[in-house]
Amino acid sequence: RFCLPLVLASLPMMATGEQIPPALQDSWGDFWLFRFFVNAAGYASIVVPGFLLIQYFKRRNYLETGRGICFPVIKSCVFGSEVKSVHQEDGSLPPRAEPTESSTTRQVFKLLFCAAGLQASYLTWGVLQERVMTRTYGATEKDPGEKFTDSQFLVFMNRILAFTVAGLYCALTKQPRHGAPMYKYSFASLSNILSSWCQYEALKYISFPTQVLAKASKVIPVMMMGKLVSRKSYEYWEYLTAALISVGVSMFLLSSAPNRHASTVTTFSGVVLLGGYIIFDSFTSNWQDALFTYKMSPVQMMFGVNVFSCLFTVGSLLEQGALLESIHFMARHSEFMAHAVLLSVCSACGQLFIFYTINQFGAAVFTIIMTLRQAFAILLSCLIYGHAVTVVGGLGVAVVFVALFLRVYARSRMKKRSKKLPPGETPVQKV
Length: 431
Fold this sequence. Notes:
Blueprint: H1 3-16, H2 32-59, H3 62-65, H4 71-79, H5 104-134, H6 151-172, H7 185-202, H8 208-216, H9 219-230, H10 236-254, H11 268-291, H12 298-320, H13 322-332, H14 334-361, H15 363-385, H16 391-419
Helix pairs in contact: 2-12, 5-14, 5-15, 6-7, 6-12, 6-14, 7-11, 7-12, 8-10, 8-15, 9-11, 10-16, 13-14, 14-15, 15-16
């Protein structure tokens, strides 16, 4: 009984060989690996009974024999309509509406609106994310204050607002007839929760610029997941740009500054958490891509995933008793409550801006805007929180963003070329 806590308490120092920040030394229960397994156990307490129920209804052939008031709910959750949509060019997004008789000024205004909305939402979200996870609340001259440590509660706050916004949008606008079994959203939901948790938790060990660059390099695992999950093929330029991104990230991570701030030191735990974020996020995008073979809109996808995300996170928080603890932290620190609510608003609004931008201007323009956002996020974080970046590190950042822009350019050229192919030929799938 006593060995497990001792082992878990010693793992951070054995793995990293560095001084653990005081906020992480309060108890072995604050170590990220322990929290990860506790959270996973909470999700399993919901997933396992759900899996057994699904198998039970399928074995009983409930679709043929079921009756009663619960039949529509069980049919939607377990079986769906099983009607898949025709093949789409993107596979993950509905064909965007081409502007008809729209003036250039109107289109420029729309583009500026989309760019400003995306930049404001996600830059604010990034600054707040770093503030919540790395700074204390309630600090005075006599009291050092306290840090908020439960990343899962922040994930829950983000998901509950996204679920509400998507639900209202689906209720107020006309949507395609839903056909996917609801339980299939749970796979993307679990990986999405875990990727978000890793992203928040990693900020306790690494700097925000390092996290942004790591997120930019997720192209590589996305390609690997695409081969494993969707059996996709890729062009030579995709492998080349992926290699350039990995080189740039390596230059940034291996660069060192003599007076580097303690918060910018990349730790072993931070690298592991970033790896977890990239793997889970890569699975999420590929699983959602497979789900889009059913006839659904992006907002329906947002609603379905967030339904399960709210269920998993609130269930796990209640089992741990962490929900009330986080609410009490909110009550003690009104500034934290404002930050948590604003984080959720930025996340939900950002998702709506994503859908609108892609629908109006396509994925290429959206990717360029978001790539610029990542560069601005690094600059903003360095200015506000004083992160030091060396010359080699700066060159690494430049290599990453040059590779990303090359990727966008090459993809747009390939799409133009694929439109000119003879009717019998099909282009290679891309990410």
